[in-house]
Specification:
Helix content is 43%, strand content 19%. The protein is α/β, with parallel strands linked by helices and 161 residues long.
């Protein structure tokens, strides 16, 4: 079973909604989750926030946060997830911001990715990962890491089977 199938089935079974705010992954997370039959019951929509302006406009990331920490930061990843969760009133929201490559951004080398996750019971976590490979590989690895974060959160919150 693919990881997105595991995530989707758990969310559907427990009637927990999810959304995403994606920058470097450009909708890949939600696209893969949408492959799960019945996911529309818990996936109301998602955000592709590629630019700093879109991060602010669509999910409410404060401009001063972007100016102070840069778009490739744990602070912006957390704000993206929190903003997406608030915008669609979901149980969970995951965010992806980073450098897919091949060039560095804001002094961060290609493969630097921050993934944020917020959920019930004030659950909030951000991880920083250093990934390798071309743009496509970095994006896919990011999505897999995000899926695993959701599974881990379900277990941490004692929601999973």
């Amino acid at each position: 079973m693919q990881i997105e199938e595991m995530v989707g089935q758990q969310l559907i079974q427990h009637q927990l909604s999810i959304t995403s705010a994606e920058s470097l992954t450009a909708g890949l997370f939600v696209s893969q989750l949408a492959n799960v039959s019945g996911i529309s019951a818990v996936l109301p929509g998602a955000f592709v926030t590629y630019s700093a302006a879109a991060k602010h406009q669509l999910v409410g990331v404060p401009n001063d946060l972007i100016e102070n920490y840069g778009v490739v930061s744990k602070q912006v990843a957390l704000a993206m997830a929190s903003g997406a969760q608030a915008a669609l009133n979901t149980d969970f929201a995951v965010s992806f911001t980073g450098v897919a490559g091949p060039d560095a951004l804001e002094g961060h080398p290609a493969g630097t990715v921050f993934i944020g996750l917020v959920g019930p019971q004030q659950y909030a976590k951000v991880i920083k990962v250093g990934l390798t490979g071309d743009r496509s590989a970095v994006r896919q690895q990011s999505v897999t890491q995000g899926m695993q974060m959701v599974l881990d959160a379900l277990a941490d919150l004692k929601i999973s089977d």
